[in-house]
């Protein structure tokens, strides 16, 4: 009998496990795959390490500052700031036809860019910042509502609205074409007001430290251990059934697998209406180049691009991918200490993709289409950044098929379902969810989601 069983060894699941283990709970984390991290993981190929998911950590806080999500995370999980070793971005951009907005971890740069390129909107942008500062974090009463509608009441230039939405939707929005007002406020603060950072060693360092602390506290982590069903008796979740038929009993069960995926584990007849699943999935190309990206003319940390004045945030229906919009990131372009950097140059490009089309391709055509779309995506990218392809020495690419294989998310959805379950509860007693479908996004958000569910539901009767 465990005090808490946690499904999924992603960021939120590991964080929940650490928090509970600190209070002496007997905790077991179950992970279907042979590695940890979920959407934010890593792999090794041909002697190189590749990150998956993580471009950058949002919600950056300088060493010594105690405010903000990162400061709360460090206190709750009892990490030192240096254990995350976060190095700030050098600077990013939003690029639309004929106009670009630079931003970094100081909101004043973005404000000055808006004042220069949209002079009539400077005061309106200040009004928007004021409303966001006043926003009360994730409560059902103020979360819903169209961000586009609210923005149009404050900012009168449609192009500026599209440009502000672009990075925020790319970094955590499951709703097509629009986003919840609460999600907009959370993402605005995490990206524009706090900003991007990254450890030199990438996501591996974060995961290594999370797992190390969990195990040091006596937590149990089982890899290659998938959950096929939840054990529910008289409306209460009392444990799980594993893929091999083994039953594990737990007083509480926390699932970081996603809302749809968790409801799939419930027995027939007691599954609630689950709403619409997420539809947005991605492909990502990774190019290894023989020079540092800055040496070939790419000195930004992240570029969010869109090739028209209307931002295209919708699942592509007519083709495998949509190259009209995308994200370009170089893990080389962070302010690493003492002049350190990665040994080789890396450029990662993310584009919207159609899950159904990718998963239904026969294997030979699947391999062919990966090569073809690498070229098409690269053709799209060099409209916005300098030509880099003659310096490429290795490439890789993952698709919605890859995302589904490692997450089991329906439709290969990266940000879960559009409807979020903010309080983390389900229709079953003692069963809770954490992670993306609770409304938390990004590395720091995912970790804080696990902490909040652990605090609110699994520690309430501890001791």
UniProtKB/TrEMBL annotation:
Does the UniProt entry include the keyword Oxidoreductase?
yes
Pfam families on file: Amino_oxidase (PF01593)
Q: Does the keyword Oxidoreductase apply?
A: yes
- Which keywords accompany this UniProt record? Oxidoreductase
Q: Which InterPro entries match?
A: Amino_oxidase (IPR002937), FAD/NAD-bd_sf (IPR036188)
- Signal peptide range in chain numbering: none
> What are this entry's molecular-function GO terms?
oxidoreductase activity
Q: Where is the Amine oxidase domain?
A: 11-455
> In terms of domain of life, where is this protein from?
Bacteria
What's the family?
Belongs to the carotenoid/retinoid oxidoreductase family.
Task: Give the protein's recorded name.
Answer: Amine oxidase domain-containing protein
Please tell me the species this chain comes from.
Answer: Bremerella volcania
């Amino acid at each position: 009998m465990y005090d808490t069983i946690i499904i999924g060894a992603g960021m939120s699941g590991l964080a929940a496990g650490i928090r509970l283990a600190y209070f002496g709970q007997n905790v077991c984390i179950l992970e279907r795959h042979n590695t940890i991290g979920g959407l934010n993981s890593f792999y090794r190929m041909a002697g190189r390490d590749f990150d998956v998911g993580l471009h950058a950590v949002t919600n950056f806080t300088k060493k010594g500052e105690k405010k903000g999500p990162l400061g709360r995370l460090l206190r709750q999980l009892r990490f030192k700031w240096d254990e995350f070793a976060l190095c700030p971005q050098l600077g990013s951009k939003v690029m639309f036809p004929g106009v670009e907005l630079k931003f970094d971890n100081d909101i004043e740069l973005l404000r000055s860019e808006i004042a220069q390129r949209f002079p009539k909107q400077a005061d309106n942008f200040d009004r928007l910042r004021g409303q966001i500062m006043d926003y009360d974090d994730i409560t059902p009463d103020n979360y819903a509502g169209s961000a586009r509608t609210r923005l149009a009441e404050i900012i009168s230039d449609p192009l500026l609205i599209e440009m502000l939405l672009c990075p925020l939707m790319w970094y955590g929005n499951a709703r097509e074409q629009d986003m919840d007002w609460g999600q907009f406020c959370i993402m605005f603060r995490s990206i524009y007001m706090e900003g991007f950072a990254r450890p030199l060693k990438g996501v591996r360092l974060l995961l290594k430290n999370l797992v190390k602390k969990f195990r040091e506290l006596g937590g149990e982590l089982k890899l290659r251990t998938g959950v096929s069903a939840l054990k529910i008796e008289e409306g209460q979740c009392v444990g799980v059934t594993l893929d091999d038929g083994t039953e594990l009993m737990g007083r509480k069960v926390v699932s970081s697998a996603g809302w749809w995926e968790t409801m799939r584990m419930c027995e027939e007849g007691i599954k609630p209406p689950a709403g619409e699943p997420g539809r947005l999935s991605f492909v990502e190309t990774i190019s290894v180049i023989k020079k540092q990206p800055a040496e070939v003319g790419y000195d930004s940390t992240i570029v969010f691009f869109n090739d028209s004045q209307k931002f295209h945030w919708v699942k592509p229906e007519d083709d495998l991918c949509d190259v009209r919009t995308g994200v370009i990131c170089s893990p080389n372009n962070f302010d690493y200490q003492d002049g350190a950097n990665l040994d080789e140059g890396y450029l990662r490009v993310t584009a919207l993709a159609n899950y159904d089309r990718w998963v239904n391709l026969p294997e030979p055509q699947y391999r062919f289409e990966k090569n073809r779309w690498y070229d098409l995506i690269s053709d799209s990218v060099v409209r916005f950044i300098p030509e880099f392809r003659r310096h490429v020495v290795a490439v890789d690419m993952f698709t919605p098929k890859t995302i589904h294989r490692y997450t089991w998310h329906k439709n290969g959805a990266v940000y879960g379902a559009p409807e979020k379950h903010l309080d983390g509860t389900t229709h079953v007693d003692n069963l809770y969810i954490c992670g993306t479908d609770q409304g938390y996004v990004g590395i720091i958000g995912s970790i804080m989601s696990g902490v909040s569910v652990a605090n609110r539901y699994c520690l309430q009767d501890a001791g």
